[in-house]
From TrEMBL, chains A, B:
Gene3D superfamilies membership: 3.40.50.2300, lambda repressor-like DNA-binding domains
Domain HTH lacI-type: 26-80
Organism: Streptomyces hyderabadensis
Superkingdom: Bacteria
Protein name: LacI family DNA-binding transcriptional regulator
Any one Gene Ontology molecular-function term assigned to this protein's record: DNA binding
Keywords (A to Z) from UniProt: DNA-binding, Transcription, Transcription regulation
CDD domains in alphabetical order: HTH_LacI, PBP1_GntR
Amino acid sequence: MTPDIVSGVSQPPPRRPRKRSATRSVTLSDVAAAAGVSAQTVSRVVRDPLSVSDETRARVQAALTATGYVPNLAASNLASNRSRTVAALVPQINASVFADTVHAFSTALAAHGYQIFVGTTDYRPEHEEEVLRSFLGRRPDGLLVVGTRHTPGTLTLLGAAGVPVVETWGWSEDPVDLLVGFSNAAAAAAMVDHLVRRGRRRITFAGRHTSGDPRAAERLDGYHGAVRDLLGSEPRTVDAGPEPVTMDTGVALLDLALERYPDSDAVMFSSDVFAAGALQACVRRGIDVPGTLALAGFGDFELARHLVPALTTVAVPSAQIGELSAELLLTRMRGAAVDVPHRDVGYRVVAREST
Amino acid sequence: MTPDIVSGVSQPPPRRPRKRSATRSVTLSDVAAAAGVSAQTVSRVVRDPLSVSDETRARVQAALTATGYVPNLAASNLASNRSRTVAALVPQINASVFADTVHAFSTALAAHGYQIFVGTTDYRPEHEEEVLRSFLGRRPDGLLVVGTRHTPGTLTLLGAAGVPVVETWGWSEDPVDLLVGFSNAAAAAAMVDHLVRRGRRRITFAGRHTSGDPRAAERLDGYHGAVRDLLGSEPRTVDAGPEPVTMDTGVALLDLALERYPDSDAVMFSSDVFAAGALQACVRRGIDVPGTLALAGFGDFELARHLVPALTTVAVPSAQIGELSAELLLTRMRGAAVDVPHRDVGYRVVAREST
DNA sequence: GAACCTGTTGTTAGCGCTAGCGATAGCGCT
DNA sequence: AGCGCTATCGCTAGCGCTAACAACAGGTTC
């Protein structure tokens, strides 16, 4: 590497500095120069103001506002090997249930200086893997995923990430790491039980359970079990396939259910969105709900209690899932252990007018 | 490492390397070592595979999958001074109108390798500034904001960011940079016009216009102008204050309107969410809509056309706003100029049963 | 055969920040 | 005086990656 050392001190090769596109923004050392201190001290003022003397801190803070410094988090992440971000993977963000979870999660973590990335998988498992991979490039300090069923590739990535992971909105005997959720199967079974108590015997399940929504599939399982145990009859199900979770799809599911099982006395949907669409269609067509047909949803969206007739549904503590997940993650990101890493937040059948 | 160099050249201080917490993940040079090439070549395979010979590329790609390499984007951003991210600031993500915009925006940009950060301001302008500041720390390559009215601090930050900015969902004579939106005032005036044509004369405006929702305030302005011009009467308005945009608040607004202006023959709301809550309350109370009272919303959510009676509203091309914004930003981020930087996407009054 | 490409790979020097020390001064205690 | 402690601040060496150039082989042009 170094050429002849010989007698005199060999000069380093006189290369001129490379040209780099000048950075557009103020850096730590700009602020340091303005305040007459070292860059390290400015960094300390930004991250832990009390570790610097009052006088210095005042001078640095003045320089900070005078220069309009905005820290470069990429550099910070690289140097500290911490990103102070947490990634959340949800199927859909406009599905308001997840929005509540994400909002609560985000608020709780923001209070501790963490930012949240939200990625949507559009209910496509293979897409989940792709989104997760690109998120891991940002080296989040923690991960939240909706669901407990994942592709092998996703599991590998989650394991290799080397950070705490919370699975939510489901239940599993064998979670990846942390778990905050409830049993979708038990919740659906509870709804069947409710309908049976209300005298219904020919209960049809309508959902989107074959195309990438494992939660809907788990609810279907719960329905199956409950129908077998409580009614001893054959299950009646209709599936929306890959259709989006919209009220339009709900109407289509209703049509399908009435066509295939014309004698149904109740239809339970895998989402309030479906149920709301179906309910309004019934009102419009003059089908008596619950007289002729009982309808039930899942999720307890705000809409459910405002509809006429008000919609029976399963309430899930969405916001609590977000808060609790944040709490567990924070504990683990602090390096502490979590005493009870798997939390069942339960569910509640909310009986209203539609049944 | 190197042994002593004879004569008497003073050795550089023999400091051992500092201990750094070992990085948990595979780096470029790990892959390079595995493939027997330089780190730079691996980087090239990742970012521009065709710039490397077939044989080398195959070897590197094998090493890539064998090691399970996940690039560290913080390091990449720092070195290249490009983040390949775009930040979006919206008032609320669960308000489905914005969700449509964000979704379309995100999809269009993802196709070009950009990731989107979404930040919510909760309709609080001072919060917008704070969120924006923390987002700028990630040095996004572009910015999308909802609205055209901003605090001075926000304007300073937007200007200093040095990246293209799109304002959306409003209209302005003096935009910061790019603009994709429509006139909320004109849209509200068009709704008044529609109601007047339907024979309504005592039209009340109900919204959340005093507490940080500039779009609602603009709609109120449009209402004021139209009532003055078309009816020549005094405006009638009720305000939700800082209440959240929920159906519950919609019911409260209806109560307020009927209490303060009992002779109202129409109520127009600043959001479909409010209108939907009010409409269902009317159905429940037996108030004839539109016989006794016409109701109208804003946004044309899916819900609007499913309700019974179906809700008259103003349709705004939410998704188109997102797509067009992405397109303009992409052009600017490529370094090209945008020929028409301000785009009016318009609006459309959708007359349905509720009026 | 010199000069000039073109395609492919390697080398070097940072990007802006922070961890891990050192260095120094001031203080209390023996 | 000597020791140890704390508070405060600076120095250095990276974090993992990429821009910019250098180096070279093989071909083409005149």
